[in-house]
Fold RNA methyltransferase.
Amino acid sequence: MKTKIKDLPVVKNEFYEMMIDDLGNNGEGIGKIDGYTLFVDGALPQEKVKIKVIKVKKNFGFGKLIEIIEPSEYRVEPVCAIAKRCGGCQLQHLSYEGQLKYKQKKVQDVIGRIGGITDLKVNEVIGMEKPYFYRNKVQFPVGSSLDEHINIGFYAMRSHDIVTTDKCYIQQPVNKDIIDVVRDYMIHNHIKPYNEINHKGIIRHVVTRISHHSKEIMIGIVINSSKLPNGEELIKRLSEIDNVTGIFININKEKTNVIMGKKIKMLWGKPYITDYIGNVSYNISPLSFYQVNPVQTEKLYNTVLKYAELTGNEIVWDAYCGIGTISLFLASHCKKVMGVEIVPEAIEDARENAKINDIGNVEFFTGKAEEVIAEKYNEGIVADIIVIDPPRKGCDRELLDTIIKMQPKKVIYVSCDPATMARDVKILGEEGYEVEKIQPLDLFPQTVHVETVVGIQKIESKK
Ligand SMILES: C[S@@+](CC[C@H](N)C(=O)[O-])C[C@H]1O[C@@H](n2cnc3c(N)ncnc32)[C@H](O)[C@@H]1O
């Protein structure tokens, strides 16, 4: 049954002037007209704007930005010509100083609202000196426009329309050469892009990963087929691009939004790239997680190291360890690190990475962190410190329950979603742990995302 909306202070298709007070989770401006909340894409806090109301719901509505009457002191002209259309960056119209303030406030708000912690000031966000061209990994969707032109680029904001660009300001310039080669190859060989509506066509995504230090490039072509037609031509041309060291296909025949399937076939070159963080060298294979901003990752891991306050005697769990990056970064400062990760290929990388760095005091387990750490606890294995770095959905409750039983003296929570981190921190807070310090870091400049390291310690009286 349709709800009848009456007595709202705004009317659809009418124009209004309003003040913007805040930024939402997707970087949209938020303000109120007579207590009624409106979301306005492109507007910034402290701006007076003219809007057209385009959608009304019972408790909130949406406005289209028509005019900025009084701009924010943090408003800047986006460096990228397609910043407004492309969904890759949401905050290019906000100065970098403004972005860092927004991210600090975002973490402070959720830690209070969801985490229930109102008496601790979140540290200032650690930002980048040069907040552009930082990404080491990109996954370009491939599609076609109505005139059958092949589009390889980024999804537009809140849609699956592909926006193409000659220059993206947050990723590596060489990606343009790679995309041009793939597009040429497709045209020349009459290869159709994948169509997600009728599930026809072959090429779904072009994926690249580039090492910050060695500059090695690995290219992946995600296909809705078992074979790449006339693949030799593509391999030849891609392998001629400077620093390309590996090319693979990833077979993904599922009707899904998940980009990569489980099957990788190397077509040419090495099955991994090598990068460094601090003094540790890492081999990274195509299906393994690796942080996308190498410059900031080193600061992130140094923050984890600082918050762990290791003396050399500790046993450490690194839960959700990926290719063992944090485990190996901490290993020389403690007695032993155990890492656990769900992706088997990442654990193979982690074990290989321990070998190439000659690090002997680490042990890696494949499986779900919540299951493996609980099993080991039942066998009598306890840690002094647990580092948790879960995906966006946060920690499984079973893992938190094991931590509470195990009683490590510190938990270091690394998070890419402050809301789920705050939810999990609240659970630990109710069971004898307290948050000591919260350090956000900007791993994703120009976007709304923020990484956070939280230092949590066992309350002495509960020892
Ligand atoms: C945010 S990444 C962190 C990886 C690593 N700590 C790093 O800094 O590179 C989260 C990792 O958790 C893994 N993962 C997801 N669910 C998991 C689970 N239930 N148990 C163990 N690992 C999981 C993912 O495959 C991914 O490698």
Observations:
- The first strand starts at residue 15 and ends at 19.
- The chain has three domains: 15-70, 104-128+293-462, 137-276.
- The chain has nine helices and 23 strands.
